[in-house]
Write a sequence for this structure.
């Protein structure tokens, strides 16, 4: 459970190991229940895969739960339960079962009818198989074979008939660079296709540098990221990012121009994931008329109260990031960004207060965020940086107000 003191802890934008572990455990349990519901509905079509998944869960429940917590498995399950489901959607269970068996140390073999010429295996990669054939899937000693394709010992590496799910290192956190999973497209934003080796290497280098920065100077965000971030979904449009409530642990990002901006982007998106996880335990809002919208200083379109709360929570952490950077370096960018987002969040929290949309838990979270901002009031930045930050905020509001 997440109690009042936990809300106070999370309201700072940070959070300790216990409360972060609770948030993550809640999301994994949610994924497990969703997958069980899909598996029950799909048993008539993919009975063998369902049985293998059940056997893997019986042999090693912890390993199976960890797999089912993978972000895109959540997105897939929600799609199957709420969208227009196709046979291909249900056939995705073959890849999930193979990955679960490999993790659990379960030997198994079965035939998978695959109408598309690929078998995605979550958290590992994609096997390119013969179209329309009944593909033999087997797991032996933790190694997977699909048709004529052997998953390499290091599945992040490409091989004959195999596209590996690449990985990134961000401090002490290993992230997937997910340009493969067919259920990663839940953001209504333009995704990249398969990244070239050169582009993937740029991601690796920048993420390593961003992770080193966070580990050295923002350890509280490194801790949070280790519990609330699993994969990065690369976007093609510069400056865009997103997080989905259906895919806990995934952050969709366009690669920023430098590692420090990437570090800020990772902090931003994992905060959205953290708040999404918190919403499983507490309703933050009272029912609000669907048409009611509010100004947000980080968007050009009016936003509902829930999105406003999300934006405040994410940008509180961004202000925290740039405040630490300003204290550490004294550079101009940090001064401007710290002031901009401190003021933006403070003003938007006032909007939320006036909206009468907050539940008691939501009000406690907002009060805690305001207390965090107030603790920064003694911090002073150069007058020129303060002026430019406020000019940027004023210009945004002017643009928003244009017809």
């Amino acid at each position: 459970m997440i109690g009042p003191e936990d809300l106070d802890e999370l309201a700072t934008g940070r959070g300790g190991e216990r409360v972060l572990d609770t948030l993550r455990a809640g999301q994994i349990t949610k994924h497990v229940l969703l997958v069980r519901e899909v598996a029950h509905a799909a048993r008539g079509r993919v009975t063998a895969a369902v049985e293998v998944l059940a056997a893997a869960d019986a042999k090693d429940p912890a390993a199976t739960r960890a797999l089912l917590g993978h972000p895109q498995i959540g997105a897939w399950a929600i799609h199957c339960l709420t969208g227009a489901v196709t046979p291909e959607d249900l056939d995705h269970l073959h890849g999930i079962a193979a990955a679960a068996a490999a993790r659990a140390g379960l030997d198994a073999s079965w035939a998978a009818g695959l109408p598309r010429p690929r078998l995605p295996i979550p958290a590992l990669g994609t096997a390119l198989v013969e179209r329309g054939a009944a593909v033999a899937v087997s797991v032996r000693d933790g190694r997977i074979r699909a048709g004529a394709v052997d998953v390499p010992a290091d599945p992040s590496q490409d091989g004959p008939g195999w596209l590996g799910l690449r990985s990134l290192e961000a401090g002490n956190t290993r992230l997937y660079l997910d340009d493969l999973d067919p259920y990663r497209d839940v953001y209504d934003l333009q995704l990249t296709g398969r990244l070239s080796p050169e582009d993937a290497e740029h991601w690796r280098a920048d993420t390593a540098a961003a992770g080193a920065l966070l580990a050295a100077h923002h350890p509280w965000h490194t801790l949070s990221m280790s519990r609330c971030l699993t994969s990065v979904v690369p976007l093609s449009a510069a400056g865009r990012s997103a997080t989905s409530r259906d895919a806990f642990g995934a952050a969709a990002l366009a690669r920023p121009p430098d590692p420090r901006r990437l570090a800020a982007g990772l902090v931003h998106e994992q905060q959205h994931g953290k708040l999404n996880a918190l919403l499983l335990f507490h309703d933050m809002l009272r029912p609000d008329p669907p048409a009611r919208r509010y100004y947000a200083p980080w968007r050009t379109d009016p936003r509902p109260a829930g999105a406003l709360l999300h934006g405040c929570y994410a940008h509180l952490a961004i202000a925290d990031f740039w405040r630490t950077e300003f204290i550490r370096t004294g550079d101009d960018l940090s001064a401007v960004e710290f002031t901009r987002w401190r003021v933006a969040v403070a003003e938007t929290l006032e909007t939320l207060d006036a909206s009468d949309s907050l539940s008691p838990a939501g009000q406690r979270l907002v009060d805690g965020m305001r207390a965090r901002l107030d603790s920064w009031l003694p911090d002073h930045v150069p007058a020129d940086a303060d002026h430019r930050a406020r000019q940027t905020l004023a210009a945004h509001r002017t643009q928003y107000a244009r017809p």
About this structure: The chain is about 55% helix and 15% strand. The chain has a mean pLDDT of 95.
